[in-house]
Amino acid sequence: MEAAFSPPDKLGGAPDGKRSLRVWLRLLTCASMVERRVAARFRDEFDTTLPRFDFLSALDRAGPEGLPLGEVSRMLLVTNGAVTGLATGLKADGLIETLETADRRVRRVRLTALGRARFAAMARAHEGWIEALFADLAEGEAEQLMTLLDRTKRSLQRTTPEELAG
Amino acid sequence: MEAAFSPPDKLGGAPDGKRSLRVWLRLLTCASMVERRVAARFRDEFDTTLPRFDFLSALDRAGPEGLPLGEVSRMLLVTNGAVTGLATGLKADGLIETLETADRRVRRVRLTALGRARFAAMARAHEGWIEALFADLAEGEAEQLMTLLDRTKRSLQRTTPEELAG
DNA sequence: TGCAGATATTTTAGGCTTAAACTATCTCCA
DNA sequence: TGGAGATAGTTTAAGCCTAAAATATCTGCA
Fold first, then answer.
1. Hey, which residues 74-93 in chain B have their CB within 8 Å of chain A?
2. Domains in chain B: how many in total?
3. pLDDT 10s per residue in chain B (166 long)?
4. Would residue A2 count as lying in a domain?
């Protein structure tokens, strides 16, 4: 349906590649800034890290059933290896526990009571930080941004690794 | 970059905090996806990494004057320690060289001829990847996104760490 | 039934990052 | 002039990430 490449486009001034590049750099800068600040807060106020928070968040949503590590891996967009390490640490801290499963290859984990409590406090704080960071965006702007980011995400998903080859 | 967790999604009557959270998660997801794909390309086609490319890119813009490591650190938004390590590796590969400076605390570096050549090839490829990844965004959408990201960046900068305290 | 291939996780090796402590050098002013 | 404090960079300890190899277990089919 759609060409996998864009022809040279001299119509509007800057060529397409440059414009995409500028969008990407701004996107990256914003993401880095937020991440850095949030990570600092998590460290200072909860003595924890963002990946650990993300892990707990996934389990919080999953409820008492818990989740297999592979599922967590897919949700967090990180490799199995990374998840294994996080799970080890969180278990050592008593925030998660392992469940018995029929398939013994699978390691299904869920929050402990302590884990739930800790996560609730962190999530509340986290929401406040994000709200403060994005406070200058008007409601309409936020909606617009969200829509454009959705379109961006779809563009990224459509572009398979093979198409990118060159 | 870090993976996203997804908050419960209550469309419509969501309070501000939730909307900011959703914007942030989409932003993070997009940034992570691009970063992952670009990193894979750099590894497969040039046997290098994104941070190294970013370092070379900063030096390329700087020209024959080069840059002090501290300046690079500020441009890349990473700590001095990270920059020291990257510089060590790039120098070992013959891509950068150190310049004499009056202030002997300062280590000013610039691209070698080899570094310039390698960077040029990588930059060309990089631009193509980014263009392909964002290809589905119409010209107007890209402009709009850029504007909104600028506003976002300003909101982030306005929000000092102190204000974030809770 | 039994084995080949699929699947889930862990391990390993190597790179990046941070914060904080440390070294070297410079600047300023009493 | 000489030392206190600022500044630039390096080192260290610890955490996260990846890709790829290794383990363990399961499943399907001849």
1. 77
2. 1
3. 554 444 444 444 445 668 999 999 999 999 999 999 999 999 999 999 999 999 999 999 999 999 999 999 999 999 999 999 999 999 999 999 999 999 999 999 999 999 999 999 999 999 999 999 999 999 999 999 999 999 999 999 887 655 555 4
4. no
Quick one: CA dihedral A24, A29, A35, A36, positive or negative?
A: positive
Structural domain including B59 reads 52-159
CB atoms within 10 A of CB A56: 24
Q: A3 lies in a domain?
A: no
Of residues B142, B134, B121, B107, the one with CA closest to residue B47 = B121
Cβ(A28)–Cβ(A16) under 8 Å? Answer: no
The model carries a pTM of 0.88
CATH number at residue B98: 1.10.10.10
Distance (Å) from the C-alpha of residue A93 to the closest C-alpha of chain B? 21
A52 touches strand D (CB under 7 A): yes
pLDDT digits (tens, 9 = 90+) for A56-75: 999 999 999 999 999 999 99
Q: Which nucleotides of D are covered by protein (CB under 7 A)?
A: 7-13, 15-20, 24-27
- Dihedral of CA B22/B23/B24/B25: which sign? positive
- Reported as a single tens digit per residue, the pLDDT across A70-123 is 999 999 999 999 999 999 999 999 999 999 999 999 999 999 999 999 999 999
A57 neighbourhood in chain B, CB within 8 Å: 5, 7
Contact B109, B66 (CB under 8 A): yes
- On whether residue A59 sits in a domain, the answer given is yes
Q: Confirm whether A128 is domain-assigned.
A: yes
A108 has which bridge partners?
A68, A99
The partner residues of B111 in beta bridges, in order of sequence, read B96
B102 beta carbon to strand D: under 7 Å: no
Beta bridge partners of A67: A109
